[in-house]
């Protein structure tokens, strides 16, 4: 059996693997278990009782985290005319119309989020093979296809995250940095979990919140007790 590095072993020693913690306790342990020299990202993983193969059980959306993600987000907006000016004034890093579509098709990828006005989607659709696999294709369901580009840019810059259930029924999302205060991490986690609860498909049967865990980039996974949120889910 390979030897566990001393720092990793010390981090794991603060976590009781057999226990499910409250959200606040788990976020406090994430900070306590930190050992990397950089500011690690904190991720939440929620396993849902859904079958994503069925369209009516696909859980997808977006939410503005109360305390942001701690990450600088580079926003690209496809817009023209007045909406191009609006996007620039809101703080978009890159804005353009057909010229920007051409630039991306030629390999430009220095951005983290893409927003487009509805009248640009005909041209942006041609970039599906480039943006789609990276999860960057604008989508009206998560608010990234909109004429309200100013607000969309401000939300993206302010900590809006997108989430989507994976084939295994798990939602992974960034909720902050280890340098965040414990309370800020807990509030971000609760905001995302509650958003998932509100989106429970009517066709989902049995336990909806199967398991929840939080971890930093290098740290151990810490279980969160779903019972804190069960009052908002129906056991069908």
Structure description:
This protein is α/β, with parallel strands linked by helices and about 240 residues long. The protein is about 30% helix and about 20% strand. It is built from eight helices and nine strands. The protein has a four-stranded antiparallel β-sheet with strand order 7-1-8-9, with helices on one face. Strand 3 (about 75-80), helix 3 (about 80-90) and strand 4 (about 95) form a beta-alpha-beta unit.
Question: How are the SSEs placed, and which strands pair?
Answer:
Layout: H1 6-13, H2 23-32, E1 41-48, E2 60-64, E3 75-78, H3 82-90, E4 94-96, H4 98-105, E5 113-116, H5 121-124, H6 128-131, H7 149-158, E6 160-164, E7 170-177, H8 182-198, E8 209-216, E9 222-224
Parallel strand pairs: 3-4, 3-5
Antiparallel strand pairs: 1-7, 1-8, 2-6, 8-9
Helix pairs in contact: 2-8, 3-7
Subunit structure: Part of the 50S ribosomal subunit.
Keywords: Repressor, Ribonucleoprotein, Ribosomal protein, RNA-binding, rRNA-binding, Translation regulation, tRNA-binding
Protein name: Large ribosomal subunit protein uL1
